[in-house]
């Protein structure tokens, strides 16, 4: 017969603490969701917590119904996120593998230059001039090339690779494998946790970025992204009240206001990343911890 574990005071206290952490973690998101699904006039009264008091989808109807480019902008955001993440991972892992090789002559100088870029930047104006002179204005590659390599991502991946025993690569070389074979068949499979972690960093950065669209691609409507379109909607949303005269004056309020639109936009921008994160979560902590500890 199996013994049932006796519940102690410590278990109860721990359960209460964990419930508190869950509530504190979920409350902001649930509050945003409730406001986005609540009538704007009622929201102005305040007091909305985790459930909408006067349920409506008017806020989302205002966003999707008032912007015909939203669907194509969503597709462009997905495209830049997928392409940018894949190319960024390939470039970062290849550079990280190169500078992780102890027999590489320029290991330290390149690593030093990478670290310097984390503290010193040329600034926005030189970057704009460089993008313009490279002919990337209103070009899809403006979403890919500037974010292709990030010093932080390369260093994280390299730190993870430093923990891989050299005996693996040396034995592969003795069997006749070249560097490219070692990289794709040995290093990459062993680095899946850190690759998943960096992929999440890249995907979130690509998905959330709207400023590069504003600076470099607003002249081409086909390159407009979801975040940029949502930013324009939020910027153009004004609370207006007026009177409708049809015999008697009737005071009416619009069904949306900036706060309601802002909360709905937050939900639209956040949900896609929330759907992706569970698939990468099991690699996330492993990739960060193993990549941060050197044996």
Automatic annotation (TrEMBL):
Q: Does the keyword Transmembrane apply?
A: yes
Query: Which keywords fit this entry according to its UniProt record?
Result: Cell membrane, Membrane, Transmembrane, Transmembrane helix, Transport
The subcellular localization recorded is: Cell membrane
Q: Name one GO cellular component term.
A: plasma membrane
Task: List the taxonomic lineage.
Answer: Bacteria, Bacillati, Bacillota, Bacilli, Bacillales
Chain segments annotated as transmembrane = 12-30, 78-98, 110-131, 143-161, 182-204, 261-280
Gene3D superfamilies from the UniProt entry: MetI-like
The record gives the membrane topology as:
Multi-pass membrane protein
Q: Which SUPFAM superfamilies match?
A: MetI-like
Domain of life, per the record? Bacteria
Against CDD domains, the record matches this protein to: TM_PBP2
What is the protein's given name? Putative aldouronate transport system permease protein
For this protein, the record's InterPro entries field holds:
MetI-like, MetI-like_sf
> Could you tell me which Pfam families the record lists for this protein?
BPD_transp_1
Provide the ABC transmembrane type-1 domain boundaries.
Answer: 74-280
Which Gene Ontology BP annotations are present? transmembrane transport
Q: Which family does it belong to?
A: Belongs to the binding-protein-dependent transport system permease family.
Annotated coiled-coil segments of the chain: none
Question: Which species is listed as the source?
Answer: Amphibacillus marinus
